[in-house]
Amino acid sequence: MGNNVIAVGAYDDKETSLTSDDQLYSYSSYKNNNIKAVTFGVEKPDVIMPANILGGGTSSSAPILTSLVAQMLELRPSLAIHPEIIKAIVLASCHRKVLPSSTEENIETMFMGLTEKQGAGVADGWIMAAIVCQGTYGYGEINTDDNEIINILQPKYTSSNMNVSLSWIRECSPTNTSHNSFSDIFASDRYDLDLQIWQGNNLITESANEFSSTEMCYFPLSSDNDNYQINIYPYDQALNTRYGYAWSIDSMMAPLLTNSGLFRIKFKNTNNYVQYNSIGDNNSSKIILNSTTNYENLSDEYTWILNESSDGFSIGTGYGNVEYYINQSSNTLDDGLSYHVSMDSSPLILSIMQNGDGTCSIINNADSTILSSVGSVLAWKPYITGDTINDSEKLCLERINYIKGDVNTDGVINVWDGTIVQKINNELITPTNIQKFLSDVDLSGNINSDDVTRILHMSNDIYYH
Fold first, then answer.
1. Distance CA 109, CA 435 (A)
2. Residue 51 and residue 82 in one domain
3. Helix (H) or strand (E) run with residue 62 in it
4. Which residue range is the domain that position 311 belongs to?
5. Is the bond preceding residue 347 a cis peptide, omega within 30 degrees?
6. Domain membership flag for residue 54
7. Beta 241-249 vs 161-168: how paired, if at all?
8. Strand bridging mode 47-50 / 8-12
9. What pLDDT digit, counting tens, does each position of 354-403 carry?
10. What is the pLDDT of residues 210-234, one digit of tens each?
């Protein structure tokens, strides 16, 4: 039954504020080579929660987690249709395990990954909220012989370790798809996905449990490299398997919930990245596609700033301090069916449509066109609502996980960031586009003294909500 549920174990928190004395309950159930679990089910538990309420036990620990998930869905209601993401976020929120229930039992640690009696460990509501606020999660669909590579940038922010978790679900299908007749429901095959974490050409760690619907990698953060690759691949085959993934560090901050952010934009059909071409000599040549595979050295030319307004999104370059946004040229391509993508100093208001497979598409509603790759060229092609979206129109947004307030992007929010913003506010220095975005902590659209004050409070662990 464990494929599409979250199995919760129980621990005793000793009714103290300490975490060092927390201890697993001896009766907390787990899979111990049971033949039915091996044949039909999955490893359990997924996580553990405190049980010192109303008599204790897993009858208390499971509802505690349920309440945290309910609060998470209040924060981001759209997650309700993605159980695979919810489960991945819950597992990714774990950064500690408790003492064993007796001295005869082995101690389980985070670096062991998913362990027999505690799963991913103790789920944390604050970190779940921070994952949602920062957007450190995603989803997709994988098929036989596919593998998905997600490039992320995660500064340390005083943290030591990272948790990357993966979850997938077992689909059910009707034998008859007609809405006018009853039909039997049958479960599809149960597939097995595996998880690897890379930095460049170096494999950091991997998780490949045989009987599981989840994987988890827990590892120390690098001191000099913030670029990581999440590699998801099927063990043998995986037909139309939907998965969710999430990651967190052990000192998460929860900024204001916003859809704006810093991203790299990659086309699904070619894996080509959208690049601002700083040496281009006209508006149409200032935006190109690049097939680079050197992910660790993607410069600010590959960074795009998505700013949300009441009407939609504008997409501006993160390069330097030039005021350029993705726009549309009146010039048509040779096929006569599409228009050049260009850069312009005035923002074009766009909408971002989710495709259901972890990708999105960018629509220009003003003239009903969709951002596409035509060969090696970026283009706007005609689009009518309801049209089939092909892979050349599907984009992957890879998050660059800086936090507002970290203006010098060194992975620490301190007085130096406040000093930079103060100089920007007094027009003593000209900020880069990324600095401008990260300086606007109060989301007012301007950089002012309130941003300075907020950043100085953040550097002293005094948060605004």
1. 39
2. yes
3. helix 58-75
4. 261-399
5. no
6. yes
7. antiparallel
8. parallel
9. 998 889 999 999 899 999 999 888 999 999 988 899 999 999 999 999 88
10. 878 899 999 999 998 999 999 999 9
